[in-house]
Amino acid sequence: MNWKRAFWMLAAVNAVVIVLAAAWLLKPSPPVKRPAHLDVEGASFTVYSKKAHLNAVINDYLVKKTKGHPLQYRVWLADRVYVSSEIPILGRPVELFVSFVPKVVKGGNVELTEPTISLGDWKLPVTYVLRYLQKHAPLPDEVSIDPDQSRVYVALKDIRFGNGYQVAANKIDLSTDEIVFTLTIPTEHSR
Predict the structure, then answer these.
(1) CA–CA distance from 84 to each of 55, 98, 138, 167 (Å)?
(2) pLDDT, tens only, 119-173
(3) Coil/strand/helix, residue 71
(4) Strand pairing of 143-146 and 122-123?
(5) Nearest by Cα to 63 from 51, 75, 47
(6) What are the residues facing 132 on neighbouring strands?
(7) Of the candidates 96, 88, 109, 91, which has an alpha carbon nearest to the alpha carbon of residue 34?
(8) What is the pTM assigned to this prediction?
(9) How far is CA 167 from the centre of its chain?
(10) Residues 40 and 166 sit within 8 Å (Cβ to Cβ)
(11) How many other C-beta atoms lie within 10 A of the C-beta of residue 179?
């Protein structure tokens, strides 16, 4: 009789854990906030880049922005935009792997769409993982996740690089390794 009672107690505990996890994952996400768009006045240049060069710049920026945060991640461009990180599950690190298709949107910003997500060898539901990342990933202010629309918005024009430089995307074609930006360098009279 004791083993039956123990079995049902364990089953009840498992059911409670599953219900709590589902409630946490299904909790509505906060509204997507997009930073205010601020144009820089100055000299503008068209910059042609390759994936390899952009990978170095992106990851250097992320290392600085996420310094000291326990959840670290890496981004790289190949045939899609890839993001990987390790998250602890039951005391062991498991690789979280996300990929997107980049699209230049109005104003020179970038939207990442058509996500695929896997945790280790498992494919995961996109909405749930994007909610998790929205709540726990140390994202720069210029990046907002919209789990309900399965996309990530990068307010590229709001990122300020050294000396106030501003970048706006013109074209991102990863299949031909053609990436074109407008770089605006503020001049003295515009500061």
Answers:
(1) 13, 6, 13, 24
(2) 888 888 888 888 887 887 777 788 888 988 888 888 888 877 777 788 888 999 9
(3) coil
(4) unpaired
(5) 75
(6) none
(7) 109
(8) 0.66
(9) 18
(10) yes
(11) 21
